[in-house]
Each structure stands twice: as structure tokens, then as C-alpha cells.
């Protein structure tokens, strides 16, 4: 059986209809849900490509799953495939990441894919830096959110100059999902650099939402 079909079949076998309607309502999703929990979706995706050594074959599977998805978990599985070696941190995932963001256009997409960008920043600092700097001034709201969130979880590895440069073009944006992302990115940076975040918040006219999120644990 084709690997994409295996993933679809296993997702349906793990479906929980009692969860599906609530998930769809919460996510305000046009695509229905199967009701599969995220850890199980991740396990199914990883198991399907276990042992694969060609990143391009994984990218092909991910693109097919994404574009032909009939349920949202298929899109989640597609994004999760990009975290599986050898596709993980391979620069060739970039066009697909951007395609997913531009066609998915919702916060669950950017939040999942931010981890893929973080991995690119760790493995390919110069290329990752250029991506974030380009996306943070994009006309596409969700690429800007992705850029802002791209260093979540880096802790002491956080590039504060890059974070600053990703935030600055977006500080006056009134969009809720941008303001929320700004606060979240600063709150996460505060885990390693609390004094820097406190000083940044004091020096900038952040929205109340961004400020509240940034200072939540300070």
C-alpha cells in the first residue's frame, strides 16, 4: 500500500468521532476532524516513513497528504513528516513550508511549522536567518507570524538580534494573531534572557496583549 494511503488508513482507524465535532468547532476549520489525538497522529506519521533515507520522497508524501487532505489530521501528519529525518532541517523543505502556510492560513499551521524553522536556524544559520528576515516583512500575515515564532524553544541559543528584527516591522500591526505571537515570542525568550525581555518591553510601545503575554512569567 502507498505510504500516504497507509497514513490515511491508520488515522481513520484511530478516529474518535466523540472528539471530532468539538475539535472542528474550536479550530473554526472548514476541514472536518477525525478526532485523532496529536501524539497519535505524530506516531502514525513517523511510523509510516520509518527507515526512509530519501528526504525528497518524504516531501512528496507530505505534499500529497497536504494537498489532498479530506480531514485536518491529514494536514497535521503532513507537517509532522517534515520533522522526520532525513527531511528534518533539510533546506529543501522550505518551499513546502511556505506552501503550507500560504494555503493553510491558520494558527495551528504556523505553530507546528515554527519548529521546522527553528531546526533550520540551528542547522543552517545563514539560510535560516535570511528566511526569517524575508518572511517577517511578507504581505502574508501567516508568514509573518511564522517568522516571529521561529525561535520558540531555542532558549540560550536565541538570536536576540534576529528576534528584534523579526518583531520590529510588526509592532504596530493590529492583527490579534500577530500581537499574540509577539508576546509569545518574548515570553519564550524571557526563559533565558529575562532582563533583556524586560528592557525590550519597557522600551517599546507594545499592544496590551503583547505586553501581557511577554511579562506573564516575569
Tag the structure with descriptive keywords:
single chain, 2 domains, 218 residues, 0% strand, Leucine-rich Repeat Variant, DNA alkylation repair protein, DNA_alkylation, mainly alpha, ARM-type_fold, 13 helices
Quick synopsis:
The chain is mainly α and 218 residues long. It folds into 2 domains: 1-88, Alpha Horseshoe (Leucine-rich Repeat Variant), CATH 1.25.10.90; 90-217, Leucine-rich Repeat Variant (Alpha Horseshoe).
List the topology elements.
Layout: H1 3-13, H2 17-27, H3 38-48, H4 55-67, H5 72-81, H6 94-104, H7 107-123, H8 125-135, H9 141-149, H10 160-167, H11 176-189, H12 194-203, H13 208-214
Characterization of the model:
InterPro entries: ARM-type_fold (IPR016024), DNA_alkylation (IPR014825). This is DNA alkylation repair protein. It holds the Pfam family DNA_alkylation. The protein has helices at residues 3-13, 17-27, 38-48, 55-67, 72-81, 94-104, 107-123, 125-135, 141-149, 160-167, 176-189, 194-203, 208-214. It has 218 residues and is mainly alpha-helical. It has two domains: 1-88, Leucine-rich Repeat Variant (Alpha Horseshoe); 90-217, Leucine-rich Repeat Variant (Alpha Horseshoe), CATH 1.25.10. The mean pLDDT is 97.
Derived from helix and strand composition plus strand pairing, the structural class reads mainly alpha
CATH architecture assignment of the largest domain = Alpha Horseshoe
CATH class of the largest domain: Mainly Alpha
Q: State the helix count.
A: 13
| CATH topology group of the largest domain | Leucine-rich Repeat Variant
Q: Could you state the order of secondary-structure elements as H and E?
A: HHHHHHHHHHHHH
Q: Unreliable runs, pLDDT <50, ≥5 residues?
A: none
Protein name: DNA alkylation repair protein
Organism: Microbacterium oleivorans
Pfam family, one: DNA_alkylation
Amino acid at each position: 500500500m502507498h505510504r500516504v494511503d497507509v497514513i490515511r488508513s491508520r488515522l481513520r482507524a484511530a478516529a474518535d468521532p466523540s472528539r471530532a465535532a468539538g475539535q472542528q468547532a474550536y479550530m473554526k476549520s472548514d476541514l472536518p476532524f477525525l478526532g485523532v489525538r496529536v501524539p497519535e497522529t505524530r506516531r502514525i506519521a513517523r511510523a509510516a516513513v520509518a527507515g526512509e533515507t530519501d528526504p525528497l520522497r518524504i516531501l512528496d508524501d507530505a505534499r500529497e497528504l497536504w494537498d489532498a487532505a479530506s480531514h485536518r489530521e491529514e494536514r497535521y501528519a503532513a507537517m509532522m513528516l517534515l520533522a522526520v529525518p532525513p527531511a528534518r532541517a533539510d533546506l529543501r523543505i522550505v518551499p513546502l513550508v511556505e506552501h503550507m502556510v500560504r494555503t493553510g492560513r491558520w494558527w495551528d499551521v504556523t505553530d507546528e511549522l515554527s519548529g521546522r524553522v527553528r531546526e533550520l536556524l540551528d542547522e543552517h544559520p545563514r539560510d535560516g536567518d535570511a528566511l526569517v528576515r524575508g518572511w517577517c516583512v511578507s504581505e502574508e500575515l501567516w508568514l509573518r507570524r511564522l517568522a516571529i515564532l521561529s525561535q520558540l524553544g531555542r532558549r540560550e541559543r536565541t538570536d536576540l538580534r534576529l528576534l528584534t528584527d523579526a518583531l520590529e516591522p510588526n509592532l504596530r500591526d493590529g492583527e490579534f494573531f500577530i500581537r499574540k505571537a509577539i508576546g509569545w515570542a518574548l515570553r519564550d525568550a524571557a526563559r533565558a534572557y529575562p532582563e533583556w525581555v524586560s528592557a525590550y518591553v519597557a522600551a517599546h510601545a507594545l499592544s496590551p496583549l503583547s505586553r501581557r503575554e511577554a511579562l506573564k512569567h516575569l
